[in-house]
Design a protein that fits this description.
With 255 residues, this protein is an alpha/beta fold. It has helices at 18-41, 57-68, 80-88, 96-99, 118-121, 142-148, 179-182, 189-208, 220-233, 243-250, and strands at 10-12, 49-53, 72-76, 92-93, 105-108, 128-132, 149-156, 159-164, 169-173, 214-216. Strands 4-3-2-5-6-9-8-7 form an 8-stranded mixed β-sheet. A two-stranded parallel ribbon has the order 1-10. A hairpin with a 2-residue loop joins β7 and β8. α1 (18-41) crosses α2 (57-68), α1 runs antiparallel to α8 and α8 runs antiparallel to α9. The longest helix is centred in the N-terminal third of the chain and has 24 residues, at 18-41. It starts with 9 loop residues before the first strand and ends in a 5-residue tail after the last helix. Bound molecules: nicotinamide-adenine-dinucleotide. Nicotinamide-adenine-dinucleotide (NAD) is lined by residues 21, 24-25, 29, 53-59, 76-79, 82, 109-112, 115, 133-135, 178, 180-181.
Length: 255
């Protein structure tokens, strides 16, 4: 909106705060998406091949929690840095055409459309589970999936089996809506505390400062204060740099 000159008021990019996306997107979605997939299907995760499409903060969390439960993880990415990060985090990397046929569970987390599109349905393995954790149900082209199937049957609440030509059965969770929210309990409450603290701090700033129209970052000091407060609720107190250590960090010339 700002680039298009369509943001006539000040706004704060809450999602860009570390206290939001590091914990809400990664841990909140990672944990709740895995819980939802297990509750919806009552299937084990250990030993299964998870394909995670998109290795942003949400994808990182899903990959991490799936691996923590014993799954093998292949990541599909379009960004070379994110792909390299996934590789060095210990996951396999492949393009979707190579990863899709191997996936027992395929989860989209791209923030875009057609992370899994019609051109990939024929590649899917019989019995694959499809779930979306990105923010729009169009991450999986559900209409095309329904169009490609010759039958659709709800096997369990929130689990529809589409049978494709050739007999491949594809199980779509909660119609491609956000699996952790539409099919589960959503984020753990104590992780949402962080997101809501960021929102409250941002709202307070908007109310108290005369910010110029356009997009602003949440100041780093407030972001750190949210994290420090959270640690405080857990009884954790951090050391602080001594003045000498601070001076050393801030100097630019070697003494
Ligand atoms: N389910 C939830 O509760 C929940 C919580 C937080 C965020 N979200 C949503 O999840 C989505 C992802 O969030 P994020 O923080 O990870 O975003 P992000 O921008 O950090 O990551 C998205 C990643 O997907 C990759 N990508 C985009 N299109 C792709 C494609 N077609 N194939 C492969 N990779 C592709 C990008 O390169 C990027 O690395 C957003 O829409 C966000 O709003 C959902």
């Amino acid at each position: 909106m700002q680039r298009a000159g369509r943001l006539p008021f000040p706004a704060i990019a809450g999602n860009d705060a570390w206290s939001k996306h590091l914990f809400d997107n990664r841990h909140g979605t990672g944990q709740s998406a895995l819980s939802a997939i297990q509750q919806l299907t009552n299937l084990g995760v250990a030993g299964r091949m998870f394909c995670v499409v998109g290795y942003g903060w949400v994808g990182r969390g899903i990959a991490q929690y799936a691996r923590g439960l014993g799954a093998r993880v292949t990541v599909v990415e379009v960004d070379p840095i994110a792909a390299l990060e996934a590789l060095m985090d210990g996951h396999d990397i492949a393009n979707l055409s190579d990863a899709a046929p191997r996936a027992d569970v395929l989860v989209t987390a791209t923030g875009g459309i057609n992370g899994l599109g019609s051109e990939h349905f024929a590649l899917l393995k019989d019995g694959v589970l499809l779930a979306n954790a990105g923010h729009d149900r169009r991450e999986i082209d559900v209409a095309a999936l329904a169009g490609a199937a010759h039958s659709a049957e709800e096997k369990r609440p929130g689990v529809v089996c589409y049978t494709l030509d050739g007999g491949t059965r594809v199980y779509l969770l909660v119609q491609g809506e956000l699996v952790n929210i539409a099919g589960g309990q959503g984020h753990p409450a104590d992780i949402l505390d962080l997101s809501f603290s960021v929102q409250l701090a941002a709202a307070r700033l908007l109310a108290s400062e005369n910010l110029t129209p356009g997009l602003h970052k949440l100041p780093e000091s407030i972001d750190r204060q949210v994290a420090r407060t959270k640690l405080g609720t857990l009884g954790i107190v951090l050391d602080e740099l001594t003045p000498e250590q601070t001076r050393f960090r801030e100097q630019w010339a070697v003494e």
